[in-house]
Amino acid sequence: MDTLRLILRKLAGGIPLIIGVTLISFLLMVYFGPDLTYTLLSKNPTADEIAAVRAQLGYDQPFWLRYGDYLRELLTLDFGYSFSSGERVSSMLARTVPVSLALLAPGFVLGHLLGVGFGLIAAWHRGGWIDKLIMGLSTVGMSISFLVVIIAFQAIFGVVLGWFPVRGWNVHDLPSYLHYVTVPTLATVFVALGYNTRFFRAVLVEELNRDHVRTARAYGASPVTILYRNVLMNAMIPIVTRILFSVPLVIVSGSLLIESYFGIPGVGRVTYEAITSGDQPVLKAVVGLTALLFVLILAIADVLYTWLDPRVSLDRPGPA
């Protein structure tokens, strides 16, 4: 019951965040987004035709009434129909989100696992040549634009070597899935590894300097035991926090570039096309659901804190 109360309290506390994110994003869409009225009209439209299209798009309604409709749509998860394709937005998301998850999951998991592994090695050899080599390569990975990495990997693995496709998503079994997901995964891991390794190394170095680690070393514990039991397990809260809060950013912003340049029909590509075409129903759905996902992850993170560290009370705010 304590856990349930914590989740409900966190979800309720996330309501101002959702209202703030949706209000600002909707303000930008309405006053700075493209006006689709004349895109949907033929040449030399009459005043009645213009008024009819504006009513169809909802442009004739007051701002606060339109924002109220947006909140209602978010509560019911019914965002109407896309202005561009005419497809129902909920159907569009149900079709594209699984593709994005299948595309990004390997890179997300590998990027964090390898980041923790390299962070442990660098932290254990702090100040030595191994540490400097890992940190130097991490800095190189962070310095290169994600877009440049995508284009370079497409050129190397798709054009020069011809091993993997660089466009499309014709997945029907495991071999075809591995065939299409390899290059996007390599590009994602290459960029994410630098950021993850530097963050995890900083966290693990701080843990290595604690008294209980020095005591374990004095008692002759092996490096593997110290790194796993005394360092990694005690540093799980910041590690879990980083991993959880990366999820919404990876799903939306991370997939946007990957799917656009690889021609993969996921939610990132749909979002990119909605931004360029001013498709408000799709944009409202992506922004609103991303805010909801952040709030849900806040609640999950607090529950995990109490499981990872019993000293964290359910009745007090967590480390986040």
Class by SSE composition: mainly alpha
Taking the sheet with the most strands, its summary is:
none
Helix content: over 70%
Strand residues, percent: under 5%
User: Low-confidence parts, pLDDT < 50 over ≥5 residues?
Assistant: none
> Judging from the principal axes of the Cα atoms, what is the shape?
globular
State the end-to-end CA separation.
22 Å
User: How many helices?
Assistant: 13
Order of helices and strands: HHHHHHHHHHHHH
Radius of gyration: 24 Å
- Average pLDDT across residues? 85
- Report the strand count: 0
List keywords for this structure.
single chain; 320 residues; mainly alpha
Summarize the model shown.
The protein is mainly alpha-helical and 320 residues long. Helices cover 75% and strands 0% of the residues. The protein has helices at residues 2-13, 15-32, 47-57, 63-76, 89-124, 129-143, 146-160, 174-208, 211-218, 223-232, 236-262, 267-277, 280-308.
